[in-house]
Amino acid sequence: MAELKQNSMMQTSPTFLNTIEDEEKRADCFEILKLMRQVTKEEPKMWGASIVGFGHTHYVYESGREGDWFITGFSPRKQNLTLYVMGSFNPHVELLEKLGKHKTGVGCLYINKLKDVDVKVLKELIKQGVKAAKKK
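Above: the chain's sequence. Below: its structure in token form.
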């Protein structure tokens, strides 16, 4: 994966989110922004051109590769909303079963629309991911 840098010189996250043409996706993004802000108690920052991230962590892999990343974040992609949650979803199988319509990847949660999921469960998944990230 290419290294993403926190981009404070670019637009702010609200400015970026206001460029989303689809009204429902834009509204969903502002709700996710609010939710992640509540969970992390951090202000959002742009990472690259299209990722809104919260918090900061420095990682070092066993291979020696290291870098900087956000603790949690999201990106409005063309096909879906991508939420970045630290760690594995394996310990959260029960929560995922209650979440609603979604897909997962390594550290990514893909949802089409916020109304497709239980927001309380989503908030708990984000909390668990933030907690795991802060332990490392």
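Strands lie at 44-47, 51-54, 57-60, 66-69, 72-76, 81-85, 103-105, 108-111.
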